[in-house]
Structure formats: C-alpha cells, structure tokens
Amino acid sequence: MARPVDHVIVGAGFGGLCAAIKLDEDGERDFVVIDRGDEVGGTWRDNDYPGAACDVPSQLYSYSFAPNSEWSMSFSPQPEILAYIHRVAEWAGVLDRVVLRTTVTAADWDEDRQRWIVTAEGTAGTTTYVARTLIVGPGPLSEPRLPDIPGIESFEGELFHSARWRHDVDLTGKRVAVIGTGASAIQIIPEIQPIAGHLDVYQRTAPWVIPRNEHHYTPLEKLAFRHVPGLQKAARTAIYWGRELYVPAFTKAPGLAAPAKTMALRNIRRGIKDPELRRKVTPTYEIGCKRILISNRYYPALDADNCDLVTEGIERIEGNAIIGRDGTRREVDVLIVATGFETTDIPAAHIVRGRGGELMADRFARTGMAAYKGSTIPGFPNLFFVIGPNTGLGHSSMVFIIESQVQYIRDALRTIRVNEFATVEPTEAAFEEWNADLQRRMSTTVWSTGGCSSWYLDEHGRNTTLWPRTTFMFRHLLHTFDVERYVVGAAEPAELEVVTA
Ligand code: NAP
Predict the structure, then answer these.
(1) CA 20 to 30 Å from 183, out of 119, 267, 332, 484?
(2) How far is the CA of 468 from the centre of ligand 1 (A)?
C-alpha cells in the first residue's frame, strides 16, 4: 500500500514529537510519526532501568512551550519524564498521527517523483509512504551497543542491556555483574547493590563523578511555579545561563574545570574508605573529556561489602562465568551490559539512500558522520535531522538543541512552501565550510585534548557527536533557514524570486 503524505517523521521521542507539534502548529498537518516502540517517549521509554533519571535539571530538560510545574525534584526520575512526554503529545493533539510498533526499514529518494519512498514494517504489514520531507528523529542514543567479548553470545545466565531492562528478572540474592561505569551504570549500581547477593562491577575507564545536588520541590514551590507569572521561566533562564558558563571549560580552557575536579575528588573521599578502591576509581584523564557524571550514591555502593570493582579487564565469557585478563573466574547469574549506544554509526545511515541511490553510510564513510548545521546533507534533498551529527552536549539540555533544530526545519518548510520549491539540499561548499570550522574548534576542546577515548569520537578520533560552542550560538545559527547556502530544486514555474519566510 502506498500512502502519499507531506512529511514522514521517524521517532516519537523528544525530537520527533517536537517536530510534529511545531509542524502541526504551522498548519503542516499532513505527517506521520513512525516509531518502533509500543508508546511514545524514545530514549525515556527505552531506558527504564532502576534509578534512571535525568542528569540535567528538569526545568531546562523540558520543552520551553510546555513548562511543567509538577517536577518532583531538580533531576527528575524517568517515569516522570516519560509521563511528561505523553502529556505534552496528548495536549498538542499529535498522537492521532503517531504510528507505533512500526519500524522504518528503508527510505529512498525517488528522483522522478521528487519524493522520499519510506518503507515501514508494522504489525499490520508493510506500508510505503511517499513523502515530500523526511525528518530523522532517533538520536545517537537509540541503538544499544553490546560489548564485543568472546563467548558473550553463549552466556548461560540472564543477560540484558541497560536500555532493554528485564523487569521480569529478580536480582534479589543473585550474583550480578555490571559491565560499564558510564552514565547509565552509575545510576543502576546504587539501586541493585543493596538487593544483589553479590555485585561485580567491571570498569574499563573510571568516570569523573561529582555530587548530585538534588532539590526536592516543596508544594509551596510548585504552587508558586503554577501561579506566579514568570517565576518558572525565570528559574529556567537562570539554570540555562548557569550551564552556558561551563562551555569555555569544555572548549577552550580545561583548567577552568579545576573546581569540578576538586568536587569529584572530594566525592571519592567521602564515598569510599578503602584507599585501594579510591585509587582504582580516580580517573587519569582530564575532567570533561568524557561526560561528567553526578551521583552521591555510586561510590558508597562500590565500597559496600557485597560489591567488587573489577579493573583487570575481561578476557572472555565461559558458561556462566566471566574470565578476567588476570585469569580470575567469576560466576554470575545475571549479566547487565551498560555499555552504551551506537553513537558514531547511526542506524538511519544504513537504511537511507539519497540521490543516485547513495547510502548515507557510504557518504559518511567518505566524509565522516557529518551534516550541515547538524541538520541537512548534500545529496539528500528535503531530509532533516533532529539531533543530527555534532549536535550533542556535555553541559546542557538536548531539548534546547531539539527546539533549535525544529525552528530551522519550520523555517525551511515555510521557505519551500512560499517559494513552491520542489527540493532543498545544502551545497557541498556550505557543508565543507561548516564542518571545517567545527573540526577546527574541536582541536582545543577537552574532548580532544583530555587524554581519554569516548563515544564522542569515531574510529578516526574525529568528534562527530558534540557541539563545540554555546547552545545560544547554536540557536542563533539555526534561527533562520539560510536558503542561499542551499541548492534549490526546480520550482514550478522555473524562475521564482526567493522569498525567505
Ligand atoms: P556510555 O557512557 O557509553 O558508557 C558505557 C560504559 O561501558 C563505559 O564505562 C565503557 O567504558 C563501558 N564499556 C563499553 N564497552 C565495554 C567493553 N567491551 N568492556 C568493558 N567496558 C565497556 O553509555 P551509557 O552509560 O549508557 O550512557 C550513554 C549516554 O547516555 C551518556 O553519555 C549520556 O549522554 C546519556 N545518558 C544520560 C543520562 C541522564 O541522566 N540524562 C543517563 C544515562 C545515560 P569506557 O569508558 O572505557 O569506554
């Protein structure tokens, strides 16, 4: 069945839903939002492991157009965030165009029709959408990455990824192992350590962990947010600008992060008594090189009697045991891999084909994972990313980035509509200049100079994931669709004066 539609939006998380809500507001109502999950929510639906919470303050980690006075605390837990996403999608009236339990398996640019042919496999069979615009919403944290450990495929106990939590597996009294000590693991470990019989934590690289300064909102504060005009907006603005002040410490002068380093070292001393364990958890690279984590409970959990931090590395998995590089054999009932996501090899690149049938992954093999303004790619007409290459942050809210990109897309669609363009795609020159500037800026960042390897970098050591400037600048640069940096597909009639929206 082929279904013509103006816009196909892939992914019903924060990004895809924001695009849907704003397009709808602009009268661009003919769209579908396709998602493989059972409900909307994206990463906040998938990551429902014990302890899942946001490490960016909720006042900022929410849509600017949908403030929520009911956040229970400054860093809200996952169920609250998921419920918020549901509420906003319902309130905005876009759920009628969300197609769930459906996976986009191919998206091909049809030159003759000047349309994207999008194949979607759902419970009711295959649907082909014929769309003017393709908006790619799954961010880089959507596809779980399993560790490449010999023998893992034949592990004899229960095994699951942090983003695919098995709530049916009872950990009480069990021998549990967690591989990884990233943002997900350090939230999981304090939750499961008290109930596990024994817990082994496999650390490859120690993270920097600063205290979590949690604030629980009182009923009076919530009341004030609801009723005092401008108060919640002022709180959000203060948090926003406070976060922007961190940018130079990441991008230009890592020495500015010294206070954070002091806090992190104090966090270790406060949380751990054992000097040997303190040594093992102290990172040997600059703070900020990997994501800075926040927790008051991670170190005490590691220091508990039933927990071992294993740093010798993993040789292989044999039956129900993990064999360390030092030959130690540790038996495990449940193995939890908190080993992150396919961040530098996004799944969408393997199913989207642009002009001449070029697979996006093949283009990325030539150029690196890169886009113009994190949003568009030469050779891929009328395709827009939300959370595209080099739009990630180490210091602030991705929802701010999402709203900035959606603003750019709205302005692009208005420009296309007003001028009756068939297609827009950035020029190679615009693409080259943008990325040359990005990579030049990367050279002074702590992500490049801090002495660590991280998911920010691809296999060539090139940072294809993060934005190396202020989010304020990102918003400014994406405020208006810069049609002069684009190749415009023939309009009907052929010569039209370009009107920017
Ligand atoms: P991650 O930060 O990529 O951490 C993965 C962990 O697994 C790292 O400790 C890594 O070690 C380890 N690892 C990977 N492969 C391994 C292997 N083969 N053997 C041993 N260890 C291995 O993944 P994540 O914790 O899921 O977090 C991903 C991102 O999600 C975060 O950076 C953050 O942006 C986001 N997140 C946000 C929140 C939030 O509160 N907002 C919560 C969770 C996640 P190395 O360090 O040595 O590579």
Answers:
(1) 332
(2) 20
Mean pLDDT of 350-377: 97
Report how far ligand 1's centroid is from the alpha carbon of 291 (Å). Answer: 9
On whether the CB atoms of residues 388 and 371 are closer than 8 A, the answer is yes
Going by alpha carbons, the residue nearest to atom 10 of ligand 1 is 180
Q: In CATH, what class is 2-142+342-496?
A: alpha beta
Regarding the beta carbon of 457 and ligand 1, being less than 6 Å apart is answered no
The residue whose CA is least distant from atom 5 of ligand 1 is: 339
Using the CB atoms, write b or e for 151-183: b if 16+ within 10 Å.
ebeebebbbbbbbebeeeeebeebbbbbbbbbb
Q: Which residues contact 283 (CB under 8 A, 6 or more apart)?
A: 205, 206, 207, 208, 452
Q: Is 202 in the pocket of ligand 1 (CB under 6 A)?
A: yes
Encoding tokens for residue 237?
A: 């603005």
Q: How many angstroms is it from 186 CA to the middle of ligand 1?
A: 9
Q: Residue 241 pLDDT > 80, yes or no?
A: yes
What span, in angstroms and rounded, lies between the C-alpha atoms of 400 and 440?
A: 24
What's the CA gap between 101 and 485, in Å, rounded? 38
Domains 2-142+342-496 and 152-207+245-337 share a fold: yes
Cα–Cα distance between 406 and 419 in angstroms, integer? Answer: 20
Ligand 1 atom 4, closest CA: 182
Q: What is d(CA 425, CA 488) in angstroms, rounded to the nearest whole number?
A: 7
- Assigned fold of 152-207+245-337: FAD/NAD(P)-binding domain (3.50.50)
Q: Where are the domains of the chain?
A: 2-142+342-496, 152-207+245-337
* 3-state class (DSSP) for residue 341: strand
Q: By the 8 A CB rule, do 77 and 217 touch? A: no
pLDDT at 499 over 60: no
SS3 259: helix
Residue 493's pLDDT is 45
Is the overall model pTM greater than 0.85, yes or no? yes
Which residue lies with its CA nearest to atom 23 of ligand 1? 340
Q: Which pLDDT does position 35 carry in this prediction?
A: 97
Whether 492 shows a pLDDT value over 90: the answer reads no
In whole angstroms, what is the distance from residue 167 CA to residue 177 CA?
16
Tokens read off for 61: 């980690």
